[in-house]
Amino acid sequence: MRFCLWMALKDWSLIFFERLPNLDAFVMRIGLHHGPIIAGVIGAKKPHYDIWGNTVNVASRMETTGMGGRLQVVKETMDVLTLFGFTFEFRGKVFVKGKGDMDAYLLLNSPDD
C-alpha cells in the first residue's frame, strides 16, 4: 500500500512537469509523513473534503521547512521507506511547531533509480 502511494505521487509529479514545460523557475518542495488522519466534508454552503491530524501537520512542516526540488521526511517515515529500497541523507534538525526539533531526511534515490 505504501509503495503504491509513493508511485502515485511520483507519477503525478512526472505528469505535472510534462504537461507544464514552461515552469523553468518553478521549484517544488514535498513533505511526506505517514500515520493516522481524520477526514471529512466540512461546510454547508460550499462543502469540501479535508483531512486533519498530527500526520497532516508534520507533513506540512516537512514541506515548509524543506528544500526546493527535494522530498523531506522525518525519521519514522524514512525508516518505513528504507524497507522498500528508498535511500535518504540526514539533513539535520528542523523545528516542528508543537513537536520541537525533529530529525529531517532528504530522499536520495527510489528503488527504480
Give the helices and strands, then pairings.
Elements: H1 2-19, E1 30-32, E2 38-42, E3 48-52, H2 54-64, E4 71-74, H3 75-82, E5 87-96, E6 100-109
Parallel strand pairs: 1-4
Antiparallel strand pairs: 2-3, 4-6, 5-6
The string of secondary-structure elements, in order, is HEEEHEHEE
The value of Rg in angstroms is 15 Å
- For the record, give the distance between the C-alpha atoms at the N and C termini, rounded to a whole number: 20 Å
Percentage of residues in DSSP E strands: 25-35%
Poorly predicted ranges: none
Helix content: 25-40%
SSE class: alpha+beta
Give the neighbour order of strands across the main sheet.
Answer: 1-4-6-5
DSSP summary, beta strand count: 6
Strand count, sense and barrel status of the largest sheet are:
4 strands, mixed
**Basic shape:** globular
- Helix tally equals 3
Average pLDDT works out at: 85
Describe this entry's structure for a reader.
- The protein is of the alpha+beta class and 113 residues long.
- The protein is built from three helices and six strands, in the order αβββαβαββ.
- A hairpin with a 3-residue loop joins strand 5 and strand 6 (100-109).
- The radius of gyration is 15 Å and the shape is globular.
- It starts with a helix and ends with a strand.
- The mean pLDDT is 85.
